[in-house]
Amino acid sequence: MPSIRERVQKDGSRVFHVQVRMNGFPSRTSSFPSRRLAERWAKTIEAEMIEGKHFRNVEARRRTLKEAIDRYMKEIVPQKRDGKMSRTNLPYWREKVGNLKLADVSPAILVEHRDRLARGSFKRATPGSRRSMVKGEANEFRRSPSTVNRYLVALSHVFTVARKEWHWVSYNPFDGVSKLKESRGRIRYLSEDERTRLLTETEKDATLHVLTVIALSTAARAGELLNLEWDDVDLKEKRLLFRVTKNSQPRAAWLHGEAFRLLSERASACDRRGRVFGNLRGGKYEYAKPFKEACAAAQLVDFKFHDLRHSAATYLAREGASEQQLRAIGGWKSGVVSRYVHIAAEDARDILKRMNERILPSSNETGHSGDQ
Fold first, then answer.
1. For residues 97 and 173, what is the distance between their CA atoms, to the nearest angstrom?
2. What is the tens place of the pLDDT at every residue in 190-208?
3. Does the pTM exceed 0.70?
4. Do 88 and 219 fall into the same domain?
5. CA-atom Rg of the chain in angstroms
6. Cα–Cα distance, 238 to 255 (Å, whole number)
């Protein structure tokens, strides 16, 4: 129950001091010119305490965003399968608004910084640093809407954890912040001629060639292949088991033809321990540089390793694979898969045209006039 005490000031006016206590919460005190206002405030505080909000509001006024980010980086990020986004984006928020109390981080402030990120530019290299190969002035780049949204997502999860697990805040201010509209996504796939040229170049590096062919034949991601271990390769069943995937759900892939032949040869030439695509130091095979060089030698414009996955999805869609089958094969979300089906549908226009010309020829083709 709240405790209300009436006191008379030197000027003769009355003041009502009220104190609210409840087990598990810090006490709250305040003063009002009338008993009615004091009782109303006490009831509000009691209700918040019962709902568990009061303590969070006190913590939100006491804790800074910097404290929340530091704790998140120490406790949560190490538990993530891939904490790259957090380590890349959270330092921005720590620097720009880390001094603010959690209670003062409003949707308006977040929207302001969202727009700053979208308008501003950044440099990907620091000339003169120990690892930098850039000489002179580094180029400036603009952040895409998807990149800006990743900044928002990173900090939003800090507030989610602070609300659900640490009980530092009572709500997530990102509930009042909209994300930027992103493009449909990049789809670049190999034509028949490009595929032939690329595989001719990758053959010069045995490991790169096997990695490329399996990626192209199974629609697997680079990370899935690089984390693949021999214990998860069943050559008898021609099956691969990807335990480390983007959505954290294990997925199987089946080998056929050239992919199976190449992997079988690789298996026969090694002790089949550890990673399938490892290096001499026991780490992952570093494919980026040799693949880039192979693309340059094959005269491929604007092509990345991940585009092998796009290529495989497009080929599968052209073969008539349904969205459900594509999701099972590549582990895509339905929204992403629909893009490949759309491409296959566009490619089918000529087939549809030929079918219509055969079964429903136009009047000009049959020699009849439209007017009788």
1. 14
2. 888 999 999 999 999 999 9
3. no
4. no
5. 31
6. 5
**Residue 246, amino acid:** K
Which structure tokens are listed for 283? 């780490």
Spell out the residues 6+ positions from residue 309 whose beta carbon is closer than 8 angstroms to its own.
215, 219, 220, 221, 330
SS3 (DSSP) at 98: coil
Q: Are strands 3-8 and 25-32 parallel, antiparallel or unpaired?
A: unpaired
Same domain, 248 and 343: yes
**Inside any domain, residue 145:** yes
Q: How confident is the model at residue 151 (pLDDT cuts 50, 70, 90)?
A: very high
Same domain, 255 and 159: no
Q: Residue 13 has which token pair?
A: 């006016």
Q: Is 83 part of a structural domain of the chain?
A: yes
Question: Whose CA is closest to 349, among 325, 313, 318, 315?
Answer: 318
Tokens at 246, concatenated:
């983007």
CATH number, domain of 291, equals 1.10.443.10
pLDDT in tens, 229-274: 999 999 988 888 888 777 777 888 888 888 889 999 998 888 878 8
Number of domains in the chain: 3
Contact 280, 186 (CB under 8 A): no
Q: Does residue 317 sit within a domain?
A: yes
For residue 11, what pLDDT is reported? Answer: 87
**pLDDT (0 to 100) of residue 372:** 42
Q: From the centroid of its chain, how far is CA 244?
A: 15
CA distance 147 to 124: 14
Q: Which pair of structure tokens corresponds to residue 237? A: 């069943």
State the residue range of the domain holding 46: 3-51
Mean pLDDT across the stretch 77-96?
89
Question: Roughly how many angstroms between the first and final C-alpha of the chain, as a whole number?
Answer: 96
313, pLDDT greater than 80? yes
